[in-house]
Design brief:
With 93 residues, the chain is an all-alpha fold. It has five helices and no strands. Helix 1 runs antiparallel to helix 2.
């Protein structure tokens, strides 16, 4: 029997010890969401250059992060804004 595989950096929100804060990557995701963007494609370009992931993966990770209580504690304004946007989109469907 082989040992379980180690998660890769893109497997979702990074686990942290109980009571610990967010990982560097999770904080970087929220930091990108706080910024304003100059034009179309600027945010996607920043995601690729700064985080080294695709925009699709970025939004998957961000969506999971919005449900993490540590994210809410770290940046309540951004997390609550993004939750409202997500909920409004769900309601329109």
């Amino acid at each position: 029997m082989s040992p379980p595989e180690e998660p890769t950096p893109d497997d979702g929100p990074e686990p942290a010890p109980e009571g610990a804060g967010l990982s560097d990557r999770d904080r970087a995701l929220l930091a990108l969401e706080r910024r304003t963007w100059s034009g179309p494609g600027a945010k996607e370009r920043a995601v690729r250059e700064q985080l080294g992931i695709t925009p699709t993966r970025y939004y998957q990770l961000l969506n999971a992060l919005l449900d993490d209580p540590r994210a809410l504690a770290h940046d309540p304004v951004t997390v609550n804004r993004l939750r409202r946007v997500r909920d409004a989109r769900r309601d329109r469907r």
